[in-house]
Amino acid sequence: MMGDDNGSVFEQEVMVLSSIYGDEFSDLNANRYEILINYDMSLIFWPSGSSVSYTSPPLFRLELRPKRSWRSRAALHAVQERMGAMFRAGEPVIHDWVEYLRSLPSDYIEQEQGVIATANTLVSDDGAVPEIHHGATVVERKSRFVAHVARVANLEQVDRVLRQLKSDAKIAQATHNIMAYRVGGHENRDDDGEGAAGDTLLYLLQRMGITNTVVVVSRWFGGVKLGPDRFRIIAKVAKDLLDALNWQSSSAPLT
Fold it and tell me: What is the annotated signal peptide range for this record (predicted)?
């Protein structure tokens, strides 16, 4: 049990959670926090009047990504009831909640398949290939990851960027070239064989509020399976490049 010598149990657990979950942990301000559970869901939590000392559980909301829904209302209620039953007065509980949510069967949340898009008029252009920016190579257990991003005005430019990247023999030979874009009211992704990784990139663009952008992460498999860590790495190399280009929380307008 955590003591109260250096702040409330809630405050101490928040510090521990920030250390454990790193980039998956976000401070939303106003004493609200978010932890990414997976590419479908995040947990948003905040203290109730008495939860700073954990005489009652923190308040929480399970936030689903766009185009996601619970399999049924009964499934959601079962999850909420289980989370409530896990609470013990005076004991931190959020880490246990996160690990429980990550253990849920994938069929608890339903996903719409196929292209995510809205009708919109495409913009014509002069046929030029937009400038493509490349990130640093990140090596994780022998696999190599590199992010590429470009500003785009329409779907034609998205296609040109992808063709330009594939014209590079090294990139073309990558095990996976995972892609997502948001432009002109359209958004889409491609896993390129790395199941659900395209969703990870699309979710990143949505969370950062970035449009007029296509992002690709190339992965060269090194022979060691990374499991769920691969999604974290894919998102991180893309976010690091977007941050370096100062595209965070912007629409990345064309200049």
Answer: none
